[in-house]
Amino acid sequence: MSKQDPNPRTKKECKNTKAMWFSFSSSFPQSKPLSPLKQSTTARSNTSDDQFPPTHVKSITSTSNPFVKHCVKLRNSSSYRHSHGSVLLVGTTPLREIYNFQELMQNKPTTIDCLFLHENAAVPEEFVESGIHIVRVNSVVMKKLSGLQSPESIDTISLVRIPSTFHSICGDHPQDISKWFPSAFRILVLDGIQDPGNLGTLLRSAVAFGWDGVFLLPGCCDPFNEKALRASRGASFQLPMVSGTWSDLQSLVDGFQMKILAGDPGSKDELKKVSYLSYELARSLKCTKLCLVLGSEGSGLSEDAREVSELVSISMSGDFESLNVSVAGGIFLFMLQTKNKEI
């Protein structure tokens, strides 16, 4: 709990209830340095690949085409994606979500560089007059680009820039935290979330419930991983994201005087008290700036986070040990959403 808060929450203890626990803290331990995603979104390779996308190309029929190889490597390699600042996005639905989001934004954070369209498919209505470069491909090339064994339902694949709202930072240098999130009232913090499906689902829920951004601590998978993109359905391009260390997160917490809510699927410390998420607790936090930290699927919170945590549980009446992190996160994101974002 932050030092600025004179009214600590009341903890309700509940015995003999299996639960998913969550916790509050006011400070971070001095943890050893951990590496976030190392490449900046603005980093662009100076190799000949900078010619991509080739605007003169209107159709591709061979999987040996250099542009196809470039795009496949973007899909398969995180370091390659971030060094070129580009992502391969499979399917029409996430692309439509991004495009519709862009239409609502005054400053567009994402650029759609190219649209791969199956040779027999019609141009999606939104993009008929968009001016986006379209390349027609056959089924063999579409399968290669998508990486799917059965891509029959895939008519559209797009080459999209990593959004300007994504920041990969390092705690060794001073940072202007005001540039990370336009608003920092509700921030989701992911601590070592390795499963791309869970990470993508959490991003999608964060957008759905109006959260302001996501902070990725070391150990998280790339939010632009193909499976994470599929699960997020375009949320990765709609939500400000920062990849950094605990030290960087501490700067955010101190700068905005935020409370920290951290989560783990089970406490190993019997000496710690447990309080429970409730509507009363959620209402008490309605006007409070806070971060919600979710621990990894296997080991839960990192030891650094566990050292400074009070435990708060989601009470469960069913006979089950814990909830999946994306399910538990969805409950908290819903319960703690608020329309009062006065910073």
> H/E element string?
EEHHEHEEHEEEHEHEHEEHEHEH
Largest sheet: 9 strands, mixed
What is the third-level CATH name, the topology of the largest domain? Answer: Alpha/beta knot
Radius of gyration: 22 Å
Region (Disordered): 26-54
Domain tRNA/rRNA methyltransferase SpoU type: 187-334
Keywords: Methyltransferase, Transferase
Protein name: tRNA/rRNA methyltransferase (SpoU) family protein
Description of the molecule:
The structure is a single chain. The protein is α/β, with parallel strands linked by helices. The chain has 2 domains: 59-161, 60s Ribosomal Protein L30, Chain: A (2-Layer Sandwich); 166-336, Alpha/beta knot, CATH 3.40.1280.10. It has helices at 66-76, 78-84, 92-104, 139-146, 196-208, 226-232, 246-256, 279-284, 303-306, 325-335; strands at 19-25, 59-60, 86-90, 112-118, 133-137, 156-161, 166-168, 186-190, 213-216, 241-243, 259-264, 274-276, 290-294, 311-315. It has a 9-stranded mixed β-sheet with strand order 7-10-9-8-13-11-1-14-12, with helices on one face. It has a 5-stranded mixed β-sheet with strand order 2-5-4-6-3, with helices on both faces. β9, α6 and β10 form a beta-alpha-beta unit. α1 packs across α2 and α1 runs parallel beside α4 (139-146).
